[in-house]
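Ticket #4471: structure output looks truncated?

Reporter: J.K.
Steps to reproduce: submitted the chain below (74 residues) through the standard prediction queue, then opened the result file.
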Amino acid sequence: MFYYFNMNKFAERFKELRIEHGLSRAVAAEKLNVSVRLIAYWESGERECDFDTLLSVAQLFSTSVDYLLGNTEF
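Returned output as attached by the reporter:
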C-alpha cells in the first residue's frame, strides 16, 4: 500500500533537505535503508515512497510529513 501525495513537492523538498543536511544520495540511501537509485527516482518525481519510509524521511530531516508533502511551509 502506498501513500499518495504531491510528488513534485516531495521531490523538491526531499532534495532540498538532503543537500541542506550535507548528505550525498549514497549516505541518505544508507540511512533510509533504500537504494541510491530509489533516491534518484524520488528526487526526479518518478517514484513514490511508502508511508513507513515517508515517516523515516521526516525523522531523518527532523521535519514533518506535512512539510514533505507540501501541506505546510515549515
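Triage note (M.O.): checked the attachment and the full C-alpha cell line is present. The radius of gyration is 11 Å.
Status: closed, working as intended.
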